[in-house]
Structure formats: structure tokens, C-alpha cells
Write a structure and sequence with these properties.
Layout: E1 6-7, E2 12-15, E3 22-25, E4 33-34, E5 49-54, E6 61-66, E7 72-74, E8 87-88, E9 94-99, E10 102-107, E11 113-118, E12 138-139, E13 145-152, E14 155-162, E15 168-174, E16 178-183, E17 186-193, E18 200-204, E19 211-212, E20 221-228, E21 233-239, E22 242-247, E23 253-257, E24 261-266, E25 273-277, E26 284-287, E27 297-300, E28 335-336, E29 342-347, E30 354-359, H1 362-369
Antiparallel strand pairs: 1-7, 2-3, 3-30, 4-5, 5-6, 6-7, 8-9, 9-10, 10-11, 12-13, 13-14, 14-15, 16-17, 17-18, 18-19, 20-21, 21-22, 22-23, 24-25, 25-26, 26-27, 28-29, 29-30
Length: 373
């Protein structure tokens, strides 16, 4: 199907059998669907559209659900999209993505596609399914700057694109760069993941101040970092012992949660955090990142297959990279809507990965905000 193709709403509503929470299945077609990676918002700030990827045309393309009427609109028509590179702009005007050797954006109203950068002879992602192989990108919260990683001759590069002019600058070259995220409180500061044994790094947008935020101890499995808004803290998963956080200015560490949180992200206010879980899967957990070690409340049970047997054991990369089978569309990767009402996630519970929304009950919000979790 072509760019601009409109599909009628596929929405199906039901309740989680265990928690009674209202669930809406957004997509319902026999192919792979998924929302953006958990550190990337799935909605524009006004929540006019929910952005997702669908393989219904036999290849990944970017789609939007128009929330006013439920229609699904195909936004792209390309053979070479990096399906985890997509990043909706906060103002709702564009969806940014990489394809081939270029950096693009598509206008959500006119569907006009614009190439911002042609990087030439590069690799925008590495082979595999995890870390730098996903090819995630990052957009600053003011929509002004877009960070992209790529590699040239085996060297990882980090480029920052000015979205108003299309000019870009390579601000860092090193061995590994993955999972980029601008600080929500500072458009001049980014987090990025280094090598698997040395993950937690920050750098200023102009390329200065590149520094390790956390020194991993032998045997620790440090992963899935994300910012806590309003705190200038970077949270990271200490698998499978919980979540810790470190202040980027003072270096002060603290424990945020003590359960098997897997992919964890804060809401825009920094008052709630959501995480999926694995080994064992105890469902999506909501907790207060500022409270008493984040005692969690179960929101719902996605029923995703969460492929990746390597997660069920000690840190597997101590002697270097290994091949793993961990298709990302089988992981829930939950994240919040801008209005704090919804958690969006992906699940293959029906046999095909589909996009879902879980409505957060007001009673849970009150318990978390009042510190009575």
C-alpha cells in the first residue's frame, strides 16, 4: 500500500483479567506492529496521534493512529527504514526517522517527506537485535536538535542535526554508541550507551564533557538507562536487582526500585515510573521514582513472549559480545502518554505483535503520589 493509505480503526477494548484495568488494542492485523522504543515517546504532546510501526505491507513502515477518529494512516513508503529510529516531534508536525544512509522526516499533515542529511557511505545500525543494532535516535524536547548514531569503517559516530537548517556535526567518535536520549531538563545534554561492559555515559551537545557517569563493577549487568525529569538524574537498570539512579552534576547515587524491572521509564513530570518485567514476568509495574525504593503496583499483564533467554542468568557479555535471539517486537517496552493517563506497550499475546494502551486508574495515581504504595 502507498503512503497516505487510510485504514479504518482496528481498536478493540477489554479489561485485564487480573487487575481489571481497561486495555485498548490499537492494531489488529496479522503482522508485526510495535510502538517506538521505550525511551522514545509514542505520541505528540497534544496526543493528536499515536505513532507506530506496522509490517502489514510486508516491510516496516511508519503509521499514525489519528486519535480523534481512530483511523490508521500510512506515513511512509520506503524499503529501507530503520524501524526503531523513528521519533515523533513533540509539536506533532513531524516524525523523524532514518532510512538507507539518510536522515528524514515526514510531515504528519501533508505527508511530505524531507531528507535532512545524506551521510553517504555509512552504516546507520550494526548487525543484531540489541543496543547499537537497534539504531535508535533522540530528539531534544524543544524539537531543535536530533541525535543520530552511525558507523564509518568500524568506528561509531554521534552526529547532532539542527532540525531547522539541516546542518549537522559529528560530536563524538568511539568504539560503541547506542540508545541516545536528550536530558528533558537540558537540551545541551545527552545520555548515550557505551560498550556493554561500560554503558553509562553523558556528553554535551557540542561534543564537550564526554564522561562516564557510572563505573560498572565486575559481574554487574547495567542496562536500559533513562532520565528522571526534574532531577537531572539518569536511572539505569541493575539487572535483575532493580533500578538505581545517578545525579549527573554531583555523582550522588541512590536506589530507585528493588524488583526485576526490565525496561523502565518516567512520565513527563517525573512522578511515576513504569517497567515491564521478565524472569519472572510479573506484568507492567507502576511505582514512584521519588518514593521509598519504588514499591510497585501491578498495572496489567501484557502476555508478551519477551524473547531473550540470555536474560535468565548472569551477565553474558563478560568475555565479549555474543549472538542472542531477542526480537524487540516481543518485548512490551512500556511508556507513558504525555497526559499521564495511558501506558502504551507492545505484545505478541495473540500470535502477532500488536500495540496496546492501558488506562492508569486514578486510584493507582493517588496511591503513588501520596507515597502509600
Amino acid at each position: 500500500m502507498a503512503r497516505g493509505q487510510i485504514y479504518p480503526s482496528e481498536s478493540i477494548s477489554f479489561q485485564d483479567e487480573s487487575t481489571g484495568v481497561k486495555i485498548r488494542q490499537v492494531t489488529d492485523q496479522a503482522s508485526i506492529h510495535h510502538h517506538p522504543f521505550f525511551i522514545v515517546p509514542a505520541y505528540d504532546d497534544a496526543m493528536q496521534r499515536l505513532i507506530f510501526v506496522s509490517h502489514r505491507t510486508s516491510r516496516p513502515e511508519i503509521y499514525a493512529e489519528e486519535r480523534a477518529n481512530g483511523n490508521l494512516i500510512q506515513l511512509t513508503e520506503r524499503e529501507d527504514i530503520g524501524e526503531y529510529s523513528l521519533y515523533p516531534s513533540h509539536d506533532g508536525r513531524y516524525v523523524y526517522f532514518t532510512a538507507g544512509s539518510g536522515a528524514y522526516r515526514v510531515h504528519t499533515e501533508t505527508l511530505r517527506e524531507e531528507r535532512l542529511v545524506d551521510f553517504g557511505e555509512i552504516n546507520l545500525r550494526e548487525a543484531g537485535m540489541v543496543a547499537d543494532a537497534m539504531g535508535t535516535t533522540a530528539l531534544s524536547f524543544d524539537d531543535r536538535f536530533w541525535a543520530i548514531r552511525f558507523s564509518v569503517n568500524g568506528k561509531a559516530c554521534l552526529a547532532v542535526v539542527d532540525t531547522s537548517s539541516g546542518e549537522h556535526e559529528i560530536i563524538l567518535k568511539r568504539d560503541t554508541i547506542a540508545h541516545l536520549m536528550f536530558c528533558p531538563d537540558d537540551a545541551d545534554l545527552l545520555y548515550y550507551a557505551g560498550p556493554l561492559k561500560d554503558r553509562v555515559w553523558a556528553i554535551k551537545r557540542d561534543g564537550t564533557g564526554n564522561r562516564r557517569l557510572y563505573q560498572r563493577a565486575p559481574g554487574e549487568w547495567i542496562t536500559h538507562e533513562s532520565w528522571i525529569p526534574g532531577k537531572r538524574e539518569l536511572a539505569f537498570v541493575d539487572w535483575n536487582k532493580g533500578i538505581r539512579a545517578i545525579n549527573v552534576d554531583t555523582g550522588v547515587e541512590r536506589r530507585v526500585a528493588s524488583f526485576n524491572a526490565w525496561h523502565a521509564i518516567c512520565n513527563r513530570d517525573g512522578t511515576m515510573m513504569v517497567a515491564d518485567t521478565n524472569f519472572p514476568d510479573i506484568g507492567l509495574q507502576l511505582f514512584n521514582p521519588l518514593g521509598r525504593a519504588g514499591l510497585p503496583i501491578t498495572l496489567c499483564y501484557p502476555g508478551a513472549s519477551s524473547e531473550g533467554a540470555h536474560w535468565n542468568g548472569p551477565f553474558p557479555y563478560e568475555d565479549g559480545p555474543i549472538k542472542v535471539y531477542a526480537p524487540q517486537h516481543t518485548h512490551p517496552h512500556p511508556s507513558f502518554s504525555p497526559d499521564n493517563r495511558i501506558v502504551v506497550y507492545t505484545s505478541d499475546r495473540t500470535g502477532h505483535a500488536q500495540v496496546y494502551e492501558a488506562e492508569i486508574p486514578e486510584a493507582i495515581k493517588e496511591r503513588l503520589q501520596n507515597g502509600t504504595e
